Amino acid sequence: MPTAKPGAVALPPPPAPPAPHVPPLQSGCQPSKPQPDEPKEAVAAALTTAAGQPRVLSLSAGGTDKLPPLPVNLVKAIAWQESGWQSGILACDGGIGTMQVMPNTVSWMNGKFGTTSDARTLTGNVQLGTQLLDWLVAYYGDSSFGGKYDLSPDPATGKTPLLDLVISAYNAGAGNVHYNTVTDPTTGEVVGSLVIPNPQYVANVKALMSSQPWNKAG
């Protein structure tokens, strides 16, 4: 499992937008379709490929972080929650395509990962979306979990704090999602608590990770 370099902690993100991103399937307005959707098989392949790429992140404080591949079912679930895998959709708040990439995320992620992805293409869109997930894993993993990027459940408690933070922040913005720790003065035990503004979104994505409705969709 990759470990963050000493002192190489991802800096806080830009200020969060005044309102969180609302996926088209949850929005009251009607999104547009500036281009046709790619076949679901093509979307599935693109998501799988993007999830499986280990990436190197350039840190604002200098240096780099090596990130492991993302869980495929996490990437597919985020994309399903965001758009139902509709690659040609444009949301009312500006979210683009399959992973509902926001316009200001494009240059931000391309700069962090040294890429030139275009959110209007299927390949570019899923690259940018998975790059954002990777950035969130690094941000919370480095700042709150000692450089550990393990998204699997804790063997003792079954809880998934890092995964929950990453899912929440993909939708609400990292500036609105926090991990706080308190040390018990008697036992010295460090107890963490999550500040998540969109628990239903997190629950939906985790349910999709388990049910995988894309395997049943026609």
Order of helices and strands: HEEHHHHEEH
Tell me the Rg in angstroms.
17 Å
Report the principal-axis shape.
Answer: globular
- Structural class comes to mainly alpha
Beginning-to-end CA distance, first to last residue: 37 Å
Number of helices: 6
Sheet with most strands: strand arrangement: 1-2
Whole-number mean pLDDT: 87
- What is the strand content? 5-15%
Poorly predicted segments? 1-18
Provide a descriptive summary of the structure in words:
By secondary structure, the protein is mainly alpha-helical. It is 38% helix and 9% strand. It has six helices and four strands. The chain has helices at 40-51, 72-83, 103-113, 122-144, 161-172, 199-211; strands at 55-58, 64-67, 178-183, 190-195. The chain has a two-stranded antiparallel ribbon with strand order 1-2. A hairpin with a 6-residue loop joins β3 and β4 (190-195). α4 packs across α5 (161-172). The longest helix is centred in the middle third of the chain and has 23 residues, at 122-144. Mean pLDDT is 87; it is low at 1-18.
